[in-house]
Amino acid sequence: MRIEDYALLSNCRTAALVSREGSIDWLCLPRLDSASTFGGLLGDDSHGRWSLRPADPDATVTRRYDEDTFVLITRWESADAVVEVHDFMPIDPDAAVDIRRTDLVRRVVGVQGTMHLEQRISIRFDYARAMPWVRQTGSAHHPRLVAMAGPDALALRGAAVKAADHEHRGDLTVAAGEVRDMQLTWFPSHLDVPEPLDVDAELERTKAWWQGWADTIEHDGRHHDVVVRSLLILRALTNHETGGIAAAATTSLPEDFGGERNWDYRYVWLRDAALTLEALLDHGFLALADRWREWLLRAVAGDPADLQIMYGLAGERDLTEREVGWLPGFAASTPVRIGNGAAAQYQADVVGEVLVTLSAARSAGLEDSKFSWPLERQLLRFAAEQLDRPDQGLWEIRGDPHMFTHSRVMMWAAFDRGVRAVEEFGLDGPVQRWRELRERLRSEIDRGGVTDGYFTQYYGSGEVDASLLLLPQVGFCAPDDPRMLKTVERIEQTLMHDGLLHRYRTGTGVDGLAGDESPFLACSFWLVEQYAVTGRDDEAQELMDRLCALRNDVGMLSEEYDPVRERQVGNTPQAFSHLALVRAADALMTTEHRPR
Q1: Beta-bridge partner residues of 134
Q2: Which end of the chain is more exposed for a tag (fewer CB within 10 A), N or C?
Q3: For residues 75 and 82, what is the distance between their CA atoms, to the nearest angstrom?
Q4: What are the phi and psi torsion angles at 40 (to 5°)?
């Protein structure tokens, strides 16, 4: 199975990945960063999955989302029959409701003829460590299977299944015009089994919620549909209850097949979340900015010296990284990792990204709360205290720290936004000190971060880094600054592979890791934006079209793309990729009306 063979289901608390073959191979319950219940994505049938597909092995499949929702419609066609499977996770409009149950529905709709389907389910709690105790508790007319282990329990309704070889199997037959519903419900094992859903009502409510959200998106460019789906994916990665924005829905999907570059992305990187929020702000979602700011206040409360670059979905700090040796990994890529050691790194750019986004929210009309400006001042104080400290950078390298040029520019941006808050919005703060630090950083970057007329990856290096494409985006220099144009030229010469950009040259050893990686999709979208704002319109549109063609059949992008194997690589769906897509599409809107 390929990474692009998966589609996403979401209830804005957790997510499921459904393969083109009708198998739910990844589902963590009840939250995105909970332990997996179906972990076959990182192994095989024995690690948990729920398959529902025709018995006919020659049945063909197509799929799509039901308009602008996460109701997935998989259409199966055989020689004499057609059925559709409508998969969805009911969404509760009330974000404040405690998680007492999580549901996933698979509705089978007979379209033509009569089709026989096979259902196979293997439930493995706690990353496939816990084989549950399973019992049949329903009746012949209303079958119900209940499985439990430790704190977790599941109930399966809608079709009879029987135990066979450490899984449960069953058949069902659906004729034209017939509808069969299968409901999977997670609940805490110490509670009673929840009542069944009214599937018709939940389906309509869920569709209305997603479509209503999508209808408010402000974008009228050529790539409208692509932008809408990307923003929907970003919303799906935003926790309905806490406001935390996850970087991706998965862990340990490899950046290098068979290699060690496998990381857990189910957490909230301050950088990724801030950039995601900025993309949402640009399309009218001010309320989400307010919720994320409240999340930020809770997560970083306390001494700024304890600031982390990432947190759990509710602001948890303990993200200790460990290896899960019993899971063989996607495409045998090990180790499988839970948690992320980068949480303990110092990444100097993070404060800048957060303050740039909060400044954008302020400019968009979000009023400061009682605690929001004091938080920003504390973050600026923290940045000032770390001014001369090298860091692990945007790409959170695991090698030696450096004075990364992008990181230094983002520190410049942090003090710049502090100055603007005072000068443009009348807020209080040591503005003269911030001006001095801003100017000191600019002088330092101009001196240490430039070689032979182009910006470099870090001070003293002749290498370039795709993160340098972000310098004009935060206002450090103009897009057509001669240094920037020469930087772009160097990036094209050294980091481009088959028309797509790598983050940096791994062969230099800067990241301290073995192996290589594929082109990073967000970087290529940044290049689209750079092309667009410097008048290279045809190249911008050509690259954008190519990148959009790399999305899978339901519009999802992972972290990277391997142009040799022609397949997606890394965790999916990747917030960084989709937010960069949205920014690139917005930049291209300006070229659509530019006189030729």
Answers
A1: 147
A2: C
A3: 7
A4: -60, -20
